[in-house]
Task: inverse folding
């Protein structure tokens, strides 16, 4: 099997974004995933989000590990560089790339196996480093590509296709990220594009590590009754406390809005996210209340979704490392090499 | 050995008690007297409390290998007295602390015992416990100055340079060194028969460890991303790189860094960071040792298969497993050469000393980008952590990095189509693009099967085309890596092959064998894959010895596998005890075999 390119047809009526590009321009190769796989819907949401943001495709880099989910970076933004690395290690590769060239937009796609088992350490440390990237975790509770073994996100009691129940406690990437100090934490559902697209856009605009846990059902191995990661189960148990709208440019929040339960959180480069709270006591800028909310939902058998936490004062990896503004790859050699005279002088210190 | 400017001595002390600075001071003072000198730190994997040794060899002829025996030992640590006293050659000297009486069973009739009450004198002269411990080292340094005729003005000057801003500390150190010195003058016949006399042989030399030299190489080559996970004996590389970057790479206007040093969560991540940065266009490197190399395997194969430049510095230590972390070996040769699963092979550079650590690190970055592949610099603990006397490092301001085949936006525009892995020039190296250059240059890096267009494939022919190209590329590297260094004699018919830090001992051994009437030619391998010159040397000698510091004759295995030379036509001389190689080991290896062969 070789990769399949989509026939390039452009509709004369197709709408264009600020760069004059159509949605089609943000698509990639034809998906080779199973028909109905949640991951394909996430791909579509990424296409939509990047198109709406008018992200220059060649200034984005698509990063992934290994798994059905990780394959999907080939299915969007064909004009972007992509890097399908090794299983569970995309965070380090992205850290290195981002260190070298901070001017690109990094979009990482991973799976629950890739992120929560083999790659748990790398995910944790990318969070600590606060790498400036969008990290989409396509969470289906199983290892799709190796044919349906339970992953570390499988809930206790959730059953496999053969009926076997998982007995080990799950790792919830949202609680994990909140605990580790992640500066942008969201959860969504592949079947809920209305919620997912603005979250992805906000995550892309965030200055730091933006993790989005997307429940993305595996139709082949984990969409049956008894699974807690199926379409039906997720639809029935999803609970969105705060709906997020992405706002490209900041403007002052009026008192009126504040009073009506709408708040605005500034993101990077003037963009912001507008949050519509359905209950008044939830504060998505408070890590503690986000954690409490997600944990309370768990206890009730519900799945907390939405933009759950954002730290407006996030200091990304480069701020923490005090690197120059210009990408390191753009620095001229003269600025890097101290030259002959300096070496000569230095040699006298080694005598 | 044993004469004017030709002897060795050894200090047996306790780890963590500050002896390192006194020992370093002595070595540097001898160097400043213009006399060739080598220092080897033989230390335990421990922070405080275990026996540790420092050996200093003085050689008017410039031999820098570890000495086979010592003329004098300074026995300061009762825990290692027995061992220390036993290592002195017959006729040598034991300098010991006689504050407490020496166990009579340790006495030897064939050596001279010189007792100095270091401990008691320290207690009398200094009040603080810490001073009493630390300054005892300075005191024995003073005694050695008197016994060896080391010009006291030099260490005193060095102490002034070091403690100029701390007059109290300076004063205490000077007091200690003089107390030790004066005691020796009053009680012993100074100097000893073997001692120092000024020379002029170090004017163009420096004293530097290999890890510092690697760091300087990375700085000068323009490396901007360094990723690592701490491990002995490699740690010094990144610590020095950081210190150098703080000195030379901080934007004066903003205080911001023109570098990124990332202490990763483990060696896998360090490798991933280097590969990500290399893919994005930075010169990136990691420093590690054997255990780290083991962890990096999967990523090394990824970089190999996807043509990504990366520099890996392996400061080898004693394996397997944790092994002996503070002992030296050359036992990672096979695991570097063929690192990772599947068909993989990698160029390796073998510096023999800190001078080559500098030049070869620069070259490693050039080769990594030119060949778009992982390049290994195989140093070792002896080179990396000991101070070596080497020629001053030099830099040519005309140097420009060899970035290899990288297409910029203009070049891309002229192409009908960009195919990432198409071998246009027949050298196995395809042009790459850096992310961000433009839509036309975009491609997908994948560790899964891919064709010359970087597209996914499970078809045999396009898959094979890519891996065959990689083999071609590797073959081309044979003449691009550093070529062997030869040490030849007119009429020799025996060939000795060595590499890395074994160089000094092997060249000294060649001279010793010559005196016994055995002529040998030496070839020091400096790069892998092996070029035509390596093959020619092997073919030109009836008898070949391969000297290396591992149990399994790994260099010999590589020569046999890669060049097709019959394995048994090469006689291994192996030293895997963990200490730097001595010339005596090589001489014994050769003569034993020759005797065996004629008997
Ligand atoms: C080192 C290594 N071990 C095992 C595998 C096999 N493997 C490939 S994908 C995968 C699991 C992927 O699961 P997940 O990340 O959840 O992705 P999904 O397929 O479910 O989207 C495994 C174990 C591998 N590629 N590499
Ligand atoms: S196996 Fe599951 S995760 Fe993989 S493509 Fe099919 S449905 Fe998607
Ligand atoms: Mg999965």
Result:
């Amino acid at each position: 099997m070789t990769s399949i390119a989509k026939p390039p047809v452009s509709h004369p009526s197709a709408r264009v974004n600020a760069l004059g590009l159509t949605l089609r321009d943000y698509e990639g190769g034809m998906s080779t995933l199973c028909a109905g796989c949640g991951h394909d819907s996430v791909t579509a949401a990424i296409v939509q989000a990047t198109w709406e943001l008018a992200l220059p495709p060649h200034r984005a880099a698509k990063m992934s590990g290994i798994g059905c989910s990780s394959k999907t970076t080939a299915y969007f933004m064909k004009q972007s560089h992509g890097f399908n690395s090794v299983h569970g290690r995309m965070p380090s590769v992205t850290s290195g790339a981002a260190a070298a060239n901070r001017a690109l937009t990094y979009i990482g796609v991973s799976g629950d196996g890739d992120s929560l088992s083999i790659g748990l350490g790398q995910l944790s440390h990318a969070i600590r480093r606060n790498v400036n990237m969008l990290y989409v975790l396509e969470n289906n509770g199983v290892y799709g590509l190796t044919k349906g073994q339970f992953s570390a996100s499988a809930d206790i009691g959730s059953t496999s296709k053969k009926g076997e129940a998982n007995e080990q406690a799950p790792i919830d990437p949202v609680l994990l990220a909140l605990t580790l100090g992640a500066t942008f934490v969201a959860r969504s559902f592949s079947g809920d594009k209305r919620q997912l697209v603005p979250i992805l856009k906000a995550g892309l605009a965030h200055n730091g590590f933006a993790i989005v846990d997307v429940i993305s059902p595996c139709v082949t191995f984990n969409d049956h009754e008894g699974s807690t990661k199926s379409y039906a189960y997720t639809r029935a148990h999803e609970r969105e406390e705060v709906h997020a709208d992405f706002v490209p440019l900041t403007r002052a929040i009026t008192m009126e809005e504040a009073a009506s339960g709408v708040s605005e959180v500034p993101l990077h480069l003037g963009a912001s996210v507008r949050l519509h709270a359905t209950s008044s006591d939830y504060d998505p800028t408070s890590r503690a209340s986000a954690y409490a909310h997600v944990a309370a939902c768990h206890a009730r058998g519900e799945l907390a979704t939405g933009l759950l936490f954002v730290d407006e004062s996030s200091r990304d990896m480069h701020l923490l490392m005090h690197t120059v503004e210009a990408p390191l790859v753009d620095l001229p050699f003269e600025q890097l090499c101290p030259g002959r005279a300096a070496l000569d002088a230095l040699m006298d210190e080694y005598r | 050995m044993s004469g004017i400017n030709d002897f060795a001595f050894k200090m047996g002390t306790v780890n963590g008690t500050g002896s390192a600075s006194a020992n370093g001071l002595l070595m540097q003072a001898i160097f400043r007297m213009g006399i060739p000198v080598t220092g080897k730190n033989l230390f335990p994997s421990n922070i405080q409390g275990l026996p540790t040794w420092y050996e200093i060899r003085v050689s008017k002829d410039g031999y820098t290998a570890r000495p086979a025996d010592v003329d004098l030992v300074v026995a300061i640590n009762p825990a290692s007295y027995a061992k220390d006293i036993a290592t002195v050659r017959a006729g040598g000297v034991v300098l010991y602390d006689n504050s407490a009486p020496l166990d009579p069973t340790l006495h030897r009739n064939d050596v001279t015992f010189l007792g100095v009450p270091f401990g008691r004198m320290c207690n009398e002269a200094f009040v603080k416990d810490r001073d009493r411990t630390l300054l005892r080292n300075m005191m024995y340094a003073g005694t050695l100055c008197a016994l060896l005729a080391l010009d006291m003005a030099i260490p005193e000057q060095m102490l002034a340079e070091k403690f100029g801003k701390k007059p109290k500390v300076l004063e205490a150190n000077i007091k200690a060194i003089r107390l030790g010195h004066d005691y020796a003058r009053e009680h012993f016949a100074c100097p000893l028969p073997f001692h120092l006399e000024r020379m002029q042989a170090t004017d163009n030399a420096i004293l530097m460890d290999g890890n510092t030299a690697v760091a300087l190489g990375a700085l000068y080559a323009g490396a901007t991303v360094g990723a690592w996970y701490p491990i002995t004996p490699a740690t010094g590389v990144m610590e020095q790189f950081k210190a150098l970057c703080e000195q030379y790479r901080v934007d004066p206007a903003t205080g911001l860094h023109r570098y990124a040093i990332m202490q990763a969560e483990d060696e896998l991540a360090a490798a991933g960071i280097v590969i990500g940065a290399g893919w994005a266009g930075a010169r990136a490197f990691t420093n590690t040792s054997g255990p780290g190399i083991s962890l990096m395997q999967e990523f090394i194969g990824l970089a190999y298969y996807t043509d990504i430049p990366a520099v890996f510095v392996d400061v080898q230590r004693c394996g397997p497993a944790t092994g002996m972390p503070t002992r030296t070996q050359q036992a990672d040769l096979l695991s570097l050469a063929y690192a990772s699963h599947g068909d993989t092979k990698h160029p390796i550079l073998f510096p023999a000393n800190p001078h080559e650590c500098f030049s070869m690190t620069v070259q490693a970055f050039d080769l990594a980008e030119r060949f778009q592949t992982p390049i290994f610099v195989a140093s070792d603990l002896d080179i990396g952590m000991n101070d070596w006397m080497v020629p001053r490092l030099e830099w040519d301001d005309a140097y420009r990095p060899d970035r290899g085949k990288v297409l910029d936006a203009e070049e891309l525009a002229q192409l009908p189509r960009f195919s990432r892995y198409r071998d246009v020039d027949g050298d196995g190296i395809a042009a790459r693009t850096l992310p961000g250059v433009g839509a036309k240059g975009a491609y997908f890096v994948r560790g899964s099967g891919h064709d010359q267009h970087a597209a996914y494939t499970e078809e045999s022919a396009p898959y094979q085309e890519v891996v065959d190209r990689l083999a071609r590329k590797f073959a081309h590297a044979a003449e691009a890596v550093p070529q062997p260094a030869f040490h030849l004699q007119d009429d020799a018919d025996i060939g000795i092959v060595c590499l890395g830090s074994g160089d000094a001992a092997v060249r000294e051994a060649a001279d010793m064998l010559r005196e016994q009437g055995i002529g040998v030619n030496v070839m020091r391998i400096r790069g892998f894959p092996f070029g035509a010159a390596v093959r020619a040397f092997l073919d030109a000698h009836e008898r070949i010895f391969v000297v290396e510091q591992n149990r399994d004759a790994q260099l010999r295995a590589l020569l046999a596998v890669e060049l097709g030379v019959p394995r048994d036509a090469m006689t291994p001389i192996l030293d895997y005890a963990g200490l730097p190689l001595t010339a005596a080991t090589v001489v014994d290896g050769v003569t034993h075999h020759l005797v065996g062969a004629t008997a």
Summary: The longest strand of chain A covers residues 303-310. Residues 186 and 307 of chain A are 4 Å apart (CA to CA). The radius of gyration of chain A is 21 Å. Chain A touches chain B through 60 residues (CB under 8 Å).
